[in-house]
Amino acid sequence: MSEWVLLLGGSTGHGAATAKRLAKDGYGVIAFHFDRGEAKKIAEETINEVNEISGGRCHYFNTNAASEDAMQSFIPKIKEITAGSKLKLLLHSIAFGTTTNFFGDKPVTQRQMDMTVHVMGNSLLYWTQNLLNEELLGDGSRIIGLTSEGNYLAMEGYGPVSVAKVAMEAVIRQIGWELGQFGITANSVQAGVTPTRALTKINDRWEDWVENTKKRNPMRRTTTPEDVAGTISMLLKSEANFINCSIIYCDGGEHRSGTI
């Protein structure tokens, strides 16, 4: 298999699990991450594993993928890596933004809000535009973004990220609507509460969220990154060619239960 996938956020959590799964499926993996300190050590472990699984068909870049400079600098490298062939997948799995309330002791600032919405939402549009212009997307390509039930529920400390997720879903819906005629599909995957490093950054009650989720989830457990990776793997199959502009739930039915 000569196809490549591009992951925006591929070093930890859902992105890391997806990188490993798609490498096992035979795809070459190109991924961005933005890790420092302890997170960088975790990223290095992921990179080594993906590199081994893929037989060396693995390229990771540690930089801010949401910046315009990164797009302009790295897209030519991506084109070189893929020899100009169309990407099978562009996955948005960046979990970097401000987690705070709109009001209170530390209300979100305009700068924080703009950054969060750009990084976790709008940046997917600009990547898609640039990749399309460079003819790196075409018939059979998938655009997928990860969302959560915070897109319609109000939660402690989640306000800015919630706005970003809603923006991303709208971006994805419009991408699929406009590019579907070219065989390019765009969908969101809504994961359930998942005990990842990103979850611990939302607020101090994350352990309560996990325990409450186990009780309210019809399958009596939380979502795992591997669950999400498996869903994305299925969406790359030809049988999923007609799934477009949709939200696919990978949460064991959690979104149909009570709130956290």
Task: Kindly list the characteristics that best describe this protein.
alpha/beta, seven-stranded parallel sheet, 260 residues, single chain, 8 helices, 7 strands, Rossmann fold
Question: Could you describe the 3D structure shown?
Answer:
The protein has 260 residues and is α/β, with parallel strands linked by helices. The protein has a single domain (4-256), classed as 3-Layer(aba) Sandwich (Rossmann fold), CATH 3.40.50.720. Helix content is 44%, strand content 15%. It is built from 8 helices and 7 strands; from the N terminus they run E-H-E-H-E-H-E-H-E-H-E-H-H-H-E. The chain has helices at 13-24, 37-53, 68-81, 110-133, 159-179, 197-200, 206-216, 225-235, and strands at 4-8, 28-33, 58-62, 89-92, 142-147, 185-191, 246-250. A 7-stranded parallel sheet has the order 3-2-1-4-5-6-7, sandwiched between helices. Helix 3 (68-81) runs parallel beside helix 4. The longest helix is centred in the middle third of the chain and has 24 residues, at 110-133. The protein starts with a strand and ends in a 10-residue tail after the last strand. The relative contact order is 0.15. The mean pLDDT is 92.
